[in-house]
Amino acid sequence: MTGPVTGPEERDPLLDEVRKHQARRAAWLQDGEASVARRLAQIGVLGWIIVAPMLAGVFLGRWLDRWFETGLFWTAPLLMVGLGLGGWFAWRWMGSA
């Protein structure tokens, strides 16, 4: 015996995307176009979302390098980890905006 029969509309990713598009369009029609100040604020936030983890990686790396006297052994990789995290955070933020 099989489980309950579900219609194709419950599983179809295309229909999910169409519903999301309709919701975004309805929100845009209700709210209108975002102002220039709002767009600039979004760009500023996006920049800090990327830069803040990179700076944290540099500061942690420099502290570890001074502690272990290793030159740039920790700073360079932690900078790259911070860049990766910042890119991931930005990607997530742009997906939710």
Low-confidence stretches: none
- Report the biggest beta sheet as strand number plus sense, adding barrel if it closes: none
- The SSE order reads HHH
The helix tally amounts to: 3
Into which percentage range does the β-strand content fall? under 5%
Helix content: over 70%
Total strands: the figure is 0
Question: In words, what does this structure look like?
Answer:
There is one protein chain. The chain has 97 residues and is mainly α. It has one domain. 76% of the residues lie in helices and 0% in strands. It contains three helices and no strands. The protein has helices at 13-31, 36-68, 75-96. α2 packs antiparallel against α3. The protein is elongated, with a radius of gyration of 22 Å. The model has no long low-confidence stretch (mean pLDDT 89).
List the helices and strands and how they pair.
Blueprint: H1 13-31, H2 36-68, H3 75-96
Keywords:
single chain; 97 residues; mainly alpha
Summarize the structure.
With 97 residues, the protein is mainly alpha-helical.
